[in-house]
Amino acid sequence: MPQETALYEELSAWDNLDFHADLFGLARQEKKARITQMLDLVQLQERKRSRVSTFSGGMKRRLALARALLHDPHLLYLDEPTLGVDVQSRRAIWDYILSLHKEGKTVLITTNYLEEAQALCERIAIIDHGKLIAVDTPEHLKQTYAGLVVELQTAQPSAAADDIRRLPGVKEVVQEGTSLRVTTQGGSDVVPQIITLVTGAGELRQIAVREPTLDEIFLRLTGTALRD
Amino acid sequence: MHTLGYTLRVVWACLRKDLKSARSEPLYTLVSIILPLNVLVLMSLLVISGGLAPTAVVMQNSGPLAQQFYTAMSQAHSFVLQRASAEQADALIEQGKIVAVVMIPADFDARIRHNQSVVVGVQINNLNTDFTNDIRRALPLSITSFYARAEPSVVTITPQERDAYPQDLGYIPYLAVPILVIGLMVGGMVQAGTAAAVEWERETMKELLLSPASRLAVLLGKMLAAFLIGLAGATVVLAFLIAVMGIRPVHWGELIGFTLLVLALFNAWGTLLGTWLKRRTPLATLAIGLCVPLFFLSGPFGPISFFAPIEQLVARVLPVYYAIVVLQHAVHDFTLNTQGIGINALILAAYALGGLVLATIVVRRSTLAH
Question: Measured at the alpha carbon of residue B77, what is the angle toward residues B72 and B80, in degrees to the nearest 5?
Answer without folding.
Answer: 85
